[in-house]
Write a structure and sequence with these properties.
Helix 1 (about 15-30) links the parallel strand 1 and strand 2 (about 35-40). The chain starts with 7 loop residues before the first strand and ends with a helix. It has helices at about 15-30, 50, 75-85, 95-105, 125-135, 180-190, 250-255, 275-295, 300-305, 310-320, 330-340, 395-415; strands at about 10, 35-40, 60-65, 110, 115-120, 140-145, 150, 160-165, 170-175, 175-180, 195-200, 205, 220-230, 230-240, 245-250, 265-270, 340-350, 355-360, 365-370, 375, 380. Helix 8 (about 275-295) packs across helix 11 (about 330-340). The protein is built from 12 helices and 21 strands. By secondary structure, it is α+β, with helices and mostly antiparallel strands. A 6-stranded antiparallel barrel has the order 12-15-14-13-16-17.
């Protein structure tokens, strides 16, 4: 099979970045009155499946309070977002080009804690629905179950790219946007581009479990810090989930982006109190119990109502204390120490299947950050997780996917025109 459509843009990958790129390219071509064919080649049987799984099915699609310094390779993210603001063709209604884009497609949203933005329906499917509906209206073609085997750059200036498909067919395009993930792209793209090996991040951590073995599946709201050589690397507040292999939860996911074997995760179960304040509180609770009951308080009595019973038992076990041991000032001092600093030695990544992104991919130095175009292969663009950028939980990674995809789509349409 042979198609030679010289004014055509092909997007490889129908995830967040790929769909954004497709819509942006077709929209810009329509606005400028120079239609360009836009096709998405997706290896799966439908586009956007990964979007449906984000945010526990709610799709935390961006963040109203983005802190760009939280990105890996933040110095490269800023010029991309700035270029998108300048290139955007949608009415300015939000704080950034991503919000403008979704507002123009009719998406309504609400903002929750820490700036996390979700569709007003609370369903990730709504985000996918507006993307696909807009793509259809603009004439974007979804080609599913379509696996690209190789992308061959033009042999002469002005000639098209050749895409050899897994089924033996080949396609032509004068611009190609790769948004299929670094692992796949490395196999299908020409050699010579800088690439860092992929490693899963934004996931659980495997730790020493001798102190938390009995806490599997127990969730706590707390502060967690990552420490290396007695220096604090990062601090997160939020949920920690204890597991058989270590710790999980959003706070741990964010710490995992910086964690190395040999570090320590230090859990503060009562972050609103200093250690001195906590020790005083424990002593007051012991005295209050004795005044009420007429009997001396035990460690269990003082901890009851302060933390979950299983947590209390596990922490006392760390101190070689029994629940029935007396709540002396000395024992309460020790209890305050472990409540404020439960130390867990990091051994590595936990369940890598739970990791939300991969660090690594194609080097940003090989791309123009104002267009997302490859410097050595004109007409080849990349977006999303293809590139060595990642961010914390809270809409950061989807924001990067949309932003880089939109900029790549707008730039490819500009080039094609």
């Amino acid at each position: 099979m042979y198609h030679e459509i010289m004014r055509e843009i092909v997007i490889i990958g129908g995830g967040a970045a790929g769909l954004a790129a497709a819509v942006a390219a077709a929209w810009k071509a329509r606005v400028e009155g120079a239609p360009v064919g836009v096709r998405i080649f997706e290896a799966d049987d439908r586009v956007g499946r990964s979007i449906l799984a984000t945010g526990n099915g709610r799709c935390n699609f961006t963040n109203a309070e983005l802190d760009l310094e939280k990105y890996w390779h933040a110095d490269a993210v800023q010029p991309v977002l700035s270029a998108l603001e300048q290139a955007s063709i949608w009415p300015k209604v939000g704080a950034n080009g991503v919000q403008d884009f979704f507002a123009a497609m009719g998406l309504c949203w609400r903002t929750e804690g820490e700036g996390r933005m979700y569709p007003a329906t609370g369903k990730a499917s709504t985000v996918l629905d507006v993307l696909r509906a807009t793509a259809r209206a603009l004439g974007v073609q979804e080609c599913c179950n379509a696996r690209v085997r190789t992308v061959e750059p033009p042999r002469q200036q002005g000639k098209p790219f050749t895409l050899r498909m897994e089924d033996g067919a080949f396609e032509r395009a004068n611009a190609v946007i790769c948004a299929c993930g670094g692992k796949v792209a490395r196999k299908i793209l020409p050699d010579g581009l800088g690439f860092s090996d992929l490693q899963p991040v934004l996931g659980p951590l495997k730790t020493d479990t001798c102190d938390i073995r009995a806490l599997d599946n127990i969730r706590v709201r707390c502060a967690a810090s990552l420490e290396r050589d007695k220096q604090v690397i990062a601090i997160e507040r939020g949920e920690v989930l204890f597991r058989k292999y270590g710790v999980s939860g959003i706070a741990v996911f964010n710490l995992s982006r910086m964690a190395q074997p040999g570090d320590e995760v230090v859990v503060d179960l009562l972050p609103d109190l200093s250690r001195g304040e906590l020790q005083e509180l424990l002593n007051q609770r012991a005295a209050a119990f004795q005044a009420l009951s007429g009997t001396a308080a035990t460690c269990e009595d003082v901890m009851r109502g302060l933390v979950l019973p299983l947590v209390s038992e596990a922490l006392l076990s760390c101190l070689k204390l029994k629940p029935s041991d007396p709540a002396t000032a000395h024992n309460m001092h020790r209890a305050s120490c472990v409540l404020k600093r439960l130390r867990l030695a990091v051994e590595g990544s936990g369940d890598v299947k739970q990791c939300q992104v991969h660090r690594g991919g194609f080097s940003l130095e090989d791309f123009c950050l104002q267009t997302m175009e490859c410097a050595s292969v004109p007409g080849l663009y990349m977006a999303g997780e293809m590139l060595d950028v990642d961010g914390p939980c809270g809409g950061y990674n989807l924001h990067w996917a949309w932003s880089s995809g939109l900029l790549a789509g707008l730039s490819a349409a500009e080039r094609s025109n």
